[in-house]
What does this fold into?
Amino acid sequence: MFKNNDFEDIIKNRRSIRTYDADVKISKEEMEAILTDAMRAPSSVNMQPWRFVVVESLEGKEKLRPLIRFNTQQNDTSAAMIVIFGDTNSFENGEKIFSSAVEQGLMPQDVKDKQMAALTPYYANSPREELERVSIIDGSLVAMQLMLVARAYGYDTNPIGGFERKEVAEAFDMDTERYVPVMIVSIGKAKDTGYGSYRLSTEDTVFWK
It folds into this structure.
């Protein structure tokens, strides 16, 4: 259940937290609720290629610790480290996704048939680089949504891009030919308030044509 529905507060006061209250844990039920809400993020043709490894046990964190470079504080104190992967074989779920959409009245049957007819050869013939690109984009979208959802639930996060990507996948038995590491998001209750950051203005970043 969301504990904070003030969207402005969620956006403006989110902080990248590196030290958490190590005594605060997140139950499996609440973590599943957080991830379920995060997975409402958009994805390319709704293939939802994100896959999550929730590292919360002492054993899991000990396995992860030597692979995350300068981010051990988050690992040691957070409630969990969520490793986000992109599944380059996500179209395996295409039939399930579109058929379920038809059953729930979210998509007409003829649209489903057209989508499957067009996407089946596209995914079959796409080079690995393209499938990785899509997986990373969609994985990044769900990561951002995860951080905002966590904030709404009353938790704090930190996105981590500095880690040994192949080694992390291997450590948690993720097929490196199939799954692309996107990022790690630490989650828990902040031990301090963190610090804000300067943001460039629209004058620096937006081009009007």
Remarks:
- The longest strand covers residues 179-188.
